[in-house]
Design a protein that fits this description.
binds flavin-adenine dinucleotide; Rossmann fold; 6-stranded mixed sheet; alpha/beta; globular; DNA Cyclobutane Dipyrimidine Photolyase, subunit A, domain 3; Serine Threonine Protein Phosphatase 5, Tetratricopeptide repeat
């Protein structure tokens, strides 16, 4: 068979608009075939949450339909793990008359290794490949200090990034419908399967309804956010009971929406302090992704401040599980952790409060918290999650100083003054007054709500002494 089809390999980029791999594959007149390769064992190793995997499944259903309109068929495959992929891609290329392979690069160590192996295999069999970029606003290694080293601090990183972004990133339109590839489907391969054959976890309808699938949903959410909430972002973003943030993270983390689409959307809004702050959040995302590339230890769960390896973390399975279950007796922490369990998502302010409570007041290793978040977040993303945890645990390069420990009760009074958010997630204490709800006393605490598992003052002093020593 003469080689005449182009292949697009979808991974973490389930969209047709602004998808550079798809766009470039469609630049020639060749028919285009699309594949998705499920790797359940790898998902397990990476602690991908059930709610996130289910979100991928629902988005793949949408993507399959959107590609069909373009006359591009999406085929599904399943292998255990990444090492099996190079041979599979080579077989697909040979059996399906593929002469060029396109994919959007991923940045973590395992994914980079997988792609290097695939590229080598393509070269062996004379198939051209193109790795495109869709995860970053600016190419990896393009933001450097005067001495050519990567930035370890956000503020100068973001200042330089903004200078580069005076020329905004390219946007790629969805391709137009094309000639269908027809001469290959007789060859069904052994790893080929239906989407429904893949062992996706089951997730409740209620949880699914919180996060509707599809790029149109993401684009609508982005456009609605840019119409009004973005202008109040600076003041509303820290109040968990308000819909003051975009809630786009699940779509960004799974590539249903690109960060370039978000950045471009901001360019059509009126400039304001709030808009600037939201752009800064996109730049925090960027900073952590650049950090992932520049400091590969991030992919291996090592701290950026190596000396913090000496901290003597406490091993307390009971307290860890109280934190995980939202039963610490500190209402704002419990509300946060229950939001994670019931929504698969947590507000940013609460992520900081919950992470700092675990790593400082309980002095439990940040990696246990990082893992729990990854196992439950719909937007679980190695770079942002690791960045957030290392920031909160004071082990990261530009993290909170170890002595600036958030008092969760003070945070609660400041960011949930009436206890609106707590009441939503901790029904046991819903009836308490605005004053009492932030830390119920032994007198007003109902019997079904726990007493605090730690004395906040003592926990703080213990953390200060553990960190001071390193
Ligand atoms: C301990 C901890 C763990 C975290 N884990 C993750 C994670 O696994 N995945 C994830 O996407 N974010 C993570 N974050 C960052 C942040 O909490 C979420 O991105 C944010 O809450 C998502 O809500 P939103 O979409 O409404 O954000 P918005 O406030 O509307 O911000 C817009 C987008 O900017 C990005 N962003 C915002 N804040 C940050 C930040 N601090 N770091 C990196 N990117 C940011 C996100 O992509 C977000 O969707 C974590 C933060 C902490 C403190």
């Amino acid at each position: 068979m003469s080689r005449q089809n182009a292949l697009v390999w979808f991974r973490n980029d389930f969209r047709t608009i602004d998808n550079p791999a798809l766009y470039h594959a469609c630049q020639s007149t060749q028919p285009v075939i699309a594949i998705y390769i499920a790797t359940p064992q790898q998902w397990n190793q990476h602690d991908d949450a059930a709610v996130k995997l289910d979100f991928w499944r629902r988005n793949l259903v949408k993507l399959e339909k959107e590609l069909a309109i373009l006359n591009i068929q999406l085929h599904f495959f399943q292998v255990d793990s990444y090492p099996k992929i190079p041979d599979l891609i080579a077989t697909i290329c040979q059996q399906w008359a593929i002469n060029q392979v396109h994919f959007n690069a991923e940045l973590a160590v395992n994914e980079c290794q997988r792609d290097t192996n695939v590229i080598e295999r393509c070269q062996d069999i004379g198939v051209t490949y193109q790795s495109h970029h869709d995860q970053l606003l600016l190419p990896a290694a393009s933001i450097r200090t005067k001495t050519g080293t990567p930035y370890k601090v956000f503020t100068p990183f973001s200042a330089q990034a903004r200078q580069h972004l005076v020329t905004p990133p390219d946007l790629y339109p969805a391709p137009v419908p094309r000639k269908k590839a027809t001469d290959y489907t007789a060859e069904v391969l052994k790893e080929q399967c239906q989407l429904a054959d893949i062992p996706w976890p089951t997730v409740s309808k209620k949880l699914q309804n919180c996060w509707p699938a599809g790029q149109q949903q993401a684009l609508t959410r982005l456009s609605e956010f840019c119409q009004q909430p973005i202008q109040n972002y600076k003041t509303d973003r820290d109040t968990p009971s308000l819909a003051g943030t975009s809630r786009l993270s699940p779509y960004l983390a799974s590539g249903i929406l690109s960060v370039a689409q978000c950045w471009h959307a901001t360019l059509h809004c009126e400039m304001s302090d709030s808009l600037h702050v939201w752009q800064n959040e996109l730049l925090w995302r960027e900073f952590y992704k650049h950090t992932l590339v520049d400091f590969p230890q991030v992919s291996k769960h090592q701290p950026l401040k190596l000396q913090t390896e000496q901290i003597e973390w406490r091993h307390d399975a009971e307290q860890l599980s109280a934190w995980q279950d939202g039963k610490t007796g500190i209402p704002i922490v419990d509300a946060a952790m229950r939001q994670l369990l019931t929504r698969g998502w947590m507000h940013n302010r609460l992520r900081m409060i919950a992470a700092m409570f675990l790593t400082k007041h309980l002095l439990i290793d940040w990696r246990l918290g990082e893992r729990w978040f990854m196992q439950h977040l719909i937007d679980g993303d190695l770079s942002a999650n690791n960045g957030g945890w290392q920031w909160s645990a004071s082990t990261g390069s530009d993290s909170v100083p170890y002595f600036r420990i958030f008092n969760p009760v003070t945070q609660s009074k400041r960011f949930d003054p009436k206890g609106t958010f707590i009441r939503q997630y901790v029904p046991e204490i819903r009836h308490l007054s605005e004053t009492a709800i932030h830390l119920p006393s032994t007198k007003n605490k109902p019997s079904d709500y726990p007493s605090p598992i730690v004395d906040l003052k003592l926990g703080r002093l213990r953390a200060l002494s553990a960190f001071k020593g390193v």
